[in-house]
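FAQ

Q: What does a record look like?
A: Structure on top, sequence underneath. For example:
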């Protein structure tokens, strides 16, 4: 939403806290503060713990700039390279985001601050490094009051982690379904009987849900007064946060084996094919100048994302298998990689817009205008495996690139072993247009083909093209 004649574009995901609002103007990410939020911000900016977090890049870079009406103060934030949503993260990513949230809260409590909320959406990524972005969430701690963000933290961070760590259920569809996360009532249905005794479940699911029901008719002021009377203190709040930290660190779901986790070994590439493909991709990305954003669709183990990262400012690596993404994330984290962001996404069902009016959380296509798009060994999976018309597949690839973007796409011929395997499970004659000449015609309708290269196997062709404006 853009305000006429001001050049200000309000962030559709920033409206729930009436004291501050994120907006963009002249390419800058800004946050307007009212009088109360300004007072809280200036106290925060003077605190030691916040300066340390900024220095360690655990909180996005923030500085106060000249105020403009109607705001009492305006902050400028460093821009996050690519905005993602928690339902696009792997288990390890969600856990590390939760741990950073708790670390920041614990540091704040020790210095007399807390956070108003505990949402997973308060965090973003610089490659494999999480960063806290909701600077407007900080406020001075009022003695005797509980952490206001506990419920949000449970519903958007802790509960999804419990679901996957204890039951092996991928959390992504549950978070995608509801912007506010999983409710305690939902979780209790998963964790009945002996499962109540699994780590974290009794306290944070069953007791939490019971407390919510008990206080359903009480005002927030009543609940706070009861806690103060019961002796709730900053020390107790810090101990509670440390306990949750200990629990989250114990939760784990190491990436398991899957068809896709072994794809590089079983996909049928010869060594000559792989080398030729890597060379083609490197030349294409390098020839794109200095692309700010490269997109690797169907990234698998990130082989080509890493090649793209040699030349691009930032790479978003998209793969549908959560286990594969988690393995890639853990490897990137161990390397300290900050320019490759791995995301979980099924490209036959990419993230739609969500939340309030369907725009609070922007859909994948609305967030993505890459300078380079890699779509390698992917078109046949969508066209044959998922029954998406080949023209629609090409439209999706080209549509994720900005006008003039470089598109690198691989067409797997019908006679290729992988294509034959997919076609064997389909009725005869269902895909008469799945042919190389048809693919080239469709690609040329959306792009200008600048280079083609047949791999040594003779059953796969690489194309480099420029997306039409």
């Amino acid at each position: 939403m853009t305000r006429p004649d001001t050049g200000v574009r309000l962030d559709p995901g920033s409206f729930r806290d009436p004291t501050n609002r994120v907006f963009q103007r002249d390419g800058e990410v800004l946050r307007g503060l009212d009088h109360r939020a300004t007072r809280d911000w200036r106290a925060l900016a003077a605190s030691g713990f916040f300066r340390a977090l900024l220095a360690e890049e655990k909180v996005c870079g923030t500085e106060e700039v000249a105020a403009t009406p109607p705001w009492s103060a305006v902050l400028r934030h460093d821009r996050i390279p690519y905005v993602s949503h928690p339902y696009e993260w792997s288990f390890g990513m969600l856990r590390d985001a939760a741990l950073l949230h708790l670390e920041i809260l614990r540091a704040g409590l020790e210095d007399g601050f807390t956070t108003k909320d505990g949402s997973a959406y308060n965090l973003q990524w610089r490659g494999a490094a999480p960063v806290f972005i909701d600077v407007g969430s900080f406020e001075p701690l009022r003695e005797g009051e509980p952490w206001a963000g506990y419920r949000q933290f449970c519903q958007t961070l802790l509960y999804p982690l419990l679901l996957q760590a204890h039951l092996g259920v991928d959390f992504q569809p549950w978070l995608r379904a509801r912007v506010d996360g999983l409710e305690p009532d939902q979780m209790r249905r998963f964790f009945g009987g002996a499962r109540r005794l699994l780590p974290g479940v009794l306290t944070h699911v069953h007791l939490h849900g019971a407390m919510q029901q008990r206080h359903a008719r009480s005002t927030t002021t009543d609940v706070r007064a009861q806690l103060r009377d019961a002796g709730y203190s900053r020390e107790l709040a810090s101990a509670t946060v440390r306990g949750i930290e200990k629990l989250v660190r114990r939760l784990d779901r190491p990436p398991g084996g899957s068809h896709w986790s072994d794809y590089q070994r079983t996909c049928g590439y010869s060594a000559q094919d792989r080398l030729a493909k890597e060379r083609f991709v490197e030349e294409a990305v390098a020839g794109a100048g200095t692309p700010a954003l490269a997109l690797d669709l169907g990234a698998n183990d990130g082989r080509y994302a890493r090649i793209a990262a040699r030349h691009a400012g930032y790479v978003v690596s998209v793969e549908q298998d959560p286990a594969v993404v988690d393995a890639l994330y853990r490897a990137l984290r161990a390397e300290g990689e900050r320019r490759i962001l791995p995301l979980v996404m099924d490209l036959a069902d990419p993230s739609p817009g969500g939340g309030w009016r369907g725009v609070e959380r922007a859909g994948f296509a609305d967030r993505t205008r890459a300078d380079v798009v890699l779509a390698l060994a992917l078109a046949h999976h969508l066209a044959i495996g998922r029954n998406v018309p080949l023209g629609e597949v090409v439209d999706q690839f080209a549509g994720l690139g900005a006008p003039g973007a470089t598109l690198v796409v691989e067409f797997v011929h019908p006679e290729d072993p992988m294509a034959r395997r997919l076609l064997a499970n389909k009725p005869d004659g269902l895909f008469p247009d799945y042919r190389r000449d048809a693919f080239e015609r469709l690609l040329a309708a959306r792009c200008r083909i600048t280079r083609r290269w047949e791999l040594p196997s003779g059953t796969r062709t690489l194309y480099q093209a420029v997306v039409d404006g």
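Q: Is there anything notable about this one?
A: The mean pLDDT is 92.
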